[in-house]
Task: structure prediction
Amino acid sequence: MNAAVIMAGGSGTRFWPKSTKSYPKQFQRLFGEKTMLQETADRLEGFVDPDNIMVVTNKNYLPIVRNQLPDARDEFLIGEPVAKNTAPCVAAAAALLYREDPDSVMIVLPADHRIGRPDKFQEVLDCAVRTAKGKECLVTIGIEPAHPETGYGYIKYDQSAETVDYGMSSFRVDSFTEKPNLKKAKAFLESGNYLWNSGMFVWKSEVILKAFERYMPELYQLTQTLIRSNGSAEDINRFYKACPSVSIDYGIMEKAEEVEVLPGRFDWSDVGSWTAVHELSEKDSDGNVTGDVPVSMKGSTGNLVQSESGKLVALVGVDNLAVVETENAILVVNLEKAQDVKKVVEDLKSDPDKKKYL
Result:
């Protein structure tokens, strides 16, 4: 069985005010008619049976997931009682999938990425699944860097350890590197053996469980308890409350020896800020992104406008702004500073009178 595990528990703080605590980024329509979660599920069509799509999210978001993915199996909608990062998420999913099918292959995907050319994406997934089965290894998908990006982690791979199977190349991973400064990012790009870390993984549930046994034995013991359980909400709650908070990169990938990376040759973005939304959206002749919002632009270029009220938005003599209006808030930010929106969220969290706007 090929199964997809969609990680949908993030808070999306850099997309405030559209992304809120009760309705974060992955459930929002940032591009077109469908939400990011729906787009993630849709790009698996024809490759993963809808019955084999598992979503792991905050338990408070389960009604949203059920509404947006009405064909999903209820037992494959996993509600986390507390956020514990990605290692427990992967471990719980692996345990539940292994219990159903010991030969299952997991395709682990974030819910909030933007991917063009789904046909090319599925070609890479097919090769990754075959590699994970054939080599009994952990497989990650890297993205060929288009520029020296400081907002992504990187994967260093061994160019001499190339394997060509199923029509594509895979490489042995040397190391995972955290987000670099600009100087290092430029050096990575020039070296030719670094890829952006996409956070997408493929492996047999049995193989990743063995990796947990070796590198995170306490978490592994919890997976064994979960495998023997009924997989109920109470079982999930007990599992998460006993887990450490660790990322899958730190807990497993940076330590594991048998790791292969496939270069993903498709359009990809982790959509990390309003700047990315502007870059990925259709623009008018002045570089403005307005969608269906009624606007009047005078001497204004390179702006992004999103509004829920239907009010006319007029911009005069301004450039490179994101103007985002919701029912409760209005954000105006220079797109070059869009990463700092999370600082506004931090400010709101610290002020009891403003928490209602989160």
Notes: The chain has two domains: 2-269, 274-357. Residues 98 and 205 are 6 Å apart (CA to CA). The radius of gyration is 21 Å. The chain has a mean pLDDT of 93.
